[in-house]
Each structure stands twice: as structure tokens, then as C-alpha cells.
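Quick one, T. Sequence first:
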Amino acid sequence: MILNKYLKKINSNRPADLMVYDSEKSHIFFNMDQIIDFICRNATFRKIEETGRIKGDFNDKSSRTGKRALLTYEKRNKKGMVENNASYFYNLVDFRDL
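C-alpha cells:
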């Protein structure tokens, strides 16, 4: 699965079993399996035909459209997953679900 490959880095010599969020006041650690499960249960993925990018949208009541693209997959030579809007994602997660 693409999320295990690029978020958990299962094919790497240094896999990423944790995700760390830096809130500028503290560091918060999450189990990567739980993060991937949350994404799979809550994201709606769509492909941008012109660029080949894949966007992961999440419901967001604060957004004008009611959803927000928080993840972008873009095929590159060195990296595949582009991370954006980390603070929105952090605020969206209901930690009781993890």
C-alpha cells in the first residue's frame, strides 16, 4: 500500500514506526499504523488528471467547502509523498480514535 511505503517507509533500512508532530511547545508522538488506519478510514482520495497527483481530502467544518486536502501524493525522483497542512491534520484528528 502506498501509505505504508511512503509514510511508514516499510522498504527502508530505517522504517518510520512513529510520527512526530512539533507543536512548537512540545513534541507529540503517534504510532504510524494508527495514523495510516485513521487516514484510510477518513480520507477521500481523488486524482488530479493534469498532474497525476493524488489528493487526500478530509471533512473539515471550518473550510468553505466542508473538506480540505491535507495529503498530496506526487511522484518524484527522490520522494513520493508531499506533506502539507500538518497543523490542520493535527487539529482534525480525534485522538480518542487513535
